[in-house]
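At this stage, I put together a protein sequence along with its fold in token form, as given directly below:
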Amino acid sequence: MKAAFIEEHGSLETLKVGQVEEPKLESNEVLIETKFGALNHIDLFIIKGWSGLNLALPHVLGSDGSGIVKSVGSKVSLFNEGDRVAINPGLSCGKCYRCLSGKQNFCKEFSILGEHQWGTFAERFKVPEINALEIPKGIKLDVAAAAPLTFLTAWRMLTTQAGLKPNEYIFIHGAGGGVSTAAIQIAKYIGAKIITSTSTQEKMERALSLGADYAINYVKNPNFGKEVYINLTKKQGVDVVIDSVGKKTFQDSIRLLKPGGRLVIPGATTGPISEIDLRQIFWKQLRVIGSTMSNQQEFRNVMDLIFKGKLKPIIDKVFPLENIREAEEYLKEHKQFGKVLLKI
């Protein structure tokens, strides 16, 4: 089957499109004929590689996807050939006490599809039956592919981890990213007051159209913290900051928070190491909260809202599979507003 894969770690030049073997189906798995895949920053990290990542090569990328069930394992009971499905890319053992208590993303074997197991950037891919979700009639396959990883991440970090409430101020860095476009919509759904930052006037306008109350151009106004504190929150500070940027913005995130505020970290795209002024943490009694993916219930809760039209994935651009390098470069350069897809 045709797929996008790497045979070694390095630059985007290591990405290839060619023929690989079709995945072998286990008894509890479904084989899906891929229609769309969606890019995520984890693709770039996997291509580059990191200490401790030991993949069997070649390795097929892709954490999001949608398609048609082609075949099912002998123990599968929920799906049949021809069903349209989306997927939860968070994989766990399904048997440990964490999984059985609904904390799948705390499982010792937890991983993300396309990270250690072959992913969705291929003509066919497989997932455990529990990770597949039937797509209702009227929902397009591209929308179903664009939604899962970013929306489940955003849903968990805002509802479960941050406990965001109506009328609270939330600051979301980098409005153009997939997680951020999801977070803006979810925060609006909750009823919070949303401040976001981005790099261009066009992205500011699109963020406002999604539901942000205020949008700031951090390129033209790099010292935007004063504007947020004095003009927007009337010298109160914000209740919640969502920072998936990491090293470049971490100190700003700490300063933006009001006493008792919550900083939620779902990623670190500019680097994982940052200095911390601990005085800001203890004096303002801040909470710094990590957030990774979601459990199965959170995934289903947010996908239900998408299927009902309450939330909408933003699709920026669709590339053919053959143009995978161009697509990943587009993502790497932060040109997108929303999700970048591959048509398989």
Summary: The longest strand covers residues 29-38. The CA atoms of residues 227 and 233 lie 9 Å apart. The radius of gyration is 20 Å. The first helix runs from residue 41 to 48.
